[in-house]
Amino acid sequence: MADIHAVEPTRRDFLYVATGSLAAVGAAFAVWPLIDQMNPDASVLALASIEVDISNIPVGQETTFKWRGKPVFVRHRSEEEIAAADSVDISTLPDPQADSDRVITGPEGTLEKQWLVVIGICTHLGCVPLSYRGEYDGYFCPCHGSVYDTSGRIRKGPAPLNLEVPPYAFISDTKIKIG
Known about the structure:
The strands form three sheets. Strands 5-6-7-8 form a four-stranded antiparallel β-sheet, with no helix packed on it. A three-stranded antiparallel β-sheet has the order 1-10-9, with no helix packed on it. It has a single domain, classed as Rieske [2Fe-2S] iron-sulphur domain (Rieske Iron-sulfur Protein, 3-layer Sandwich), CATH 2.102.10.10. Helices cover 22% and strands 23% of the residues. With 179 residues, the protein is of the alpha+beta class. A hairpin with a 6-residue loop joins strand 6 and strand 7 (147-148).
C-alpha cells in the first residue's frame, strides 16, 4: 500500500527551486557593483603617505608635491623669511599660531624652521594660492584675495584659517614623510 502522506517532488517544484536560485544569484550579481563602489579608490590608498626628497630644494625656493589629491607646498625658507615669520605679534592674527607651532623637529631633535610644509589649498573656498606673492611674500589666493605670510598664516582676506600643516616627519636629513 502506498503512503498517502508521502509526496513525490514534481517537475513544478523543481522549476520553483531552480527559478528562485537563479534569481538569488542574479540579485547578488546586480548588487555587487553597488557595494564594491563604496571601497576607497586605489589611487587614494596609494598616496596615504609619500616620501619627499628635499635635498634638491635650494634655500628660498619651493616645490609642490601631490598628496591625497591635494597640492603640498614644501618651502625651504631663508633666514629672512624665518625672521619675518617670527617677528609677527600672533595676537594680531585672525588665526593665531606661532611659527614654531607650524614646523617640526628634525632628525637631530632641533626645530627645523627652514622647512615649511603646508597643504596648498586656501581655507576660504579651496583655491590654490600662488607662492611668493602678496604683501608678506608668502602666498596669495587670486580667487578672493586672501594673503598668507611666509609661515602660511592668514594675514588678510576672507580665509578664516591658516594653511593646513599636514602630518609629516623627517626620515633623514634629506627626506620627509608626509602622511
